[in-house]
Amino acid sequence: MHALNKNRPLRRVILASAATVSGMVMLLALKPHTAPTVITDSAAPAPSASASASPGATSGSGGSGSSSSSSGSAKSGSGSTGTKTVTGDTVQTRWGPVQVKVTVKNGKITDVTAVQYPSENPRDQQINSYAIPQLRSEALAAQSASIDTVSGATYTSEGYQQSLQSALDSAGL
């Protein structure tokens, strides 16, 4: 006998109700999208060569394994024709902090390094093992922070873009 037999209308009502309730539960279980927030070291946005960064400003334990003594702007070199290395702001994303260091020579981006990125769990490590190199190559090709988001690494990509833009602003690009 078929489950949706016309002689059993109550079964149809129960199945339809169960399907509706299941659909509502799945819909309500979706997490809303939240934009990454930027963590800044000080209230003064003006970068200077003697800017000091507070060592307690780096957040969380999720990083790339290498520790940075500053999470704000750090410059080396002088003038627009020399080589500058600038560290962008730490951007707190849903999965952990993202921070980028940029090397600029003669007004061109020559290197981009992710100082911090989410690596707390194996899934973070798997995602960022392909996302970080792709974001780096796109930043070097574009010579700006206007880069595409890596599919599957949306939060890391957005944090990377924001930190990169912060570093480029500090470098004067």
Describe, in plain words, how this protein is organized in 3D.
The chain is of the alpha+beta class and 173 residues long. It is 35% helix and 18% strand. Strands 1, 2, 3, 4 and 5 form a five-stranded antiparallel sheet that branches. Strand 3 and strand 4 (96-105) form a beta hairpin. Helix 2 (122-142) crosses helix 3 (154-171). Mean pLDDT is 73; it is low at 42-79.
Give a brief rundown of this model:
By secondary structure, this protein is of the alpha+beta class. It is built from 3 helices and 5 strands.
Features:
alpha+beta
Helix content: 25-40%
Largest sheet: 5 strands, antiparallel
Cα-based radius of gyration, to the nearest Å: 23 Å
| Number of DSSP strand runs | 5
User: Beta-sheet strand percentage?
Assistant: 15-25%
Order of helices and strands: HEEEEEHH
Please identify the structural class as seen in this structure.
Answer: alpha+beta
Helices, by number, come to 3
Q: Would you tell me the overall average pLDDT?
A: 73
Shape label = rod-shaped
Topology:
Blueprint: H1 9-29, E1 37-39, E2 83-87, E3 90-93, E4 96-105, E5 108-116, H2 122-142, H3 154-171
Antiparallel strand pairs: 1-3, 2-4, 3-4, 4-5
Helix pairs in contact: 2-3
